[in-house]
Amino acid sequence: MTDETTTDEPADAITSAISALRERAAHQGPNVAADAEASEALGVHLAVNTERRNLRILEALLFAAAEPLDEETLIGRLPLEANIQDLLGKLRDEYAERGVHLSEVGGRWRFETAPDLADVLVEVKQEPRKLSQAALETLSIIAYHQPVTRAEIEEIRGVAVSRGTLDLLFELRWVRPRGRRRTPGRPVTYGTTQGFMEYFSLQSIGDLPGMSDLKAAGLLDARLPPDFSVPDPSRSVEPDLLEDPLSDEEAHAFHVDFMDGDDDPDGAT
């Protein structure tokens, strides 16, 4: 019997070795039984140390990241035997009572300050850029109706959308061009971004407040038209609303042209 087990040995290999030693111990006396017990204790110790190291690696990755990380990225940096779901759950539990929490936003993970400590962070918290009423309305329409074209935004608001409004939403990286609608003219559609999800702490777009939530918060007038409704942002998109997505290069070119003064570089309306 050799003692060359390392912290990189998979847990099932350790378990198999321990089982073999137990079987030998049943037939070869107390000395082998003692060896089996010692090896079992070593296996448990190594497994605990391996998990602890993986937790430390995960903690370091999330702490050092400039933006939230998805599970695929985290898995690529962890040892092969690491169970990412189990590790994230344990790390979240460890930080549950601390000044920072491990949170999931838009399918990605990050550390953020505990909500109950907001009052002591007011003095050092960055003042967010305030949006105009027009920008708030435009952003809300895009969030709830996406994918939505500029003409549809204007139809819902009842007024034209100014360049300055869309410029601001682009600069904040809350809005992006999504694709071209499969309708005559192939107009560009707009949608929200990962940055929008992170800023408003949304795990999915379906977490946006519904009509009852908006009423409870006093954000809707009590005298609403009988046919008024708040769209469900998590709804299934109708087939005739499907779009051809823009590649990263096309989206970048569109954004550059838009900011330079041409919001439809291909001439579609």
From TrEMBL:
Stated name of the protein? Condensin subunit ScpB
Which Gene Ontology BP terms does the record give?
cell division; chromosome separation
Q: Which PANTHER family match?
A: SEGREGATION AND CONDENSATION PROTEIN B
Q: Show the stretches that span the lipid bilayer.
A: none
> Does the record bear Transcription in its keywords?
no
Domain of life, per UniProt, equals Bacteria
Question: Which UniProt keywords are given for this protein, alphabetically ordered?
Answer: Cell cycle, Cell division, Chromosome partition, Cytoplasm
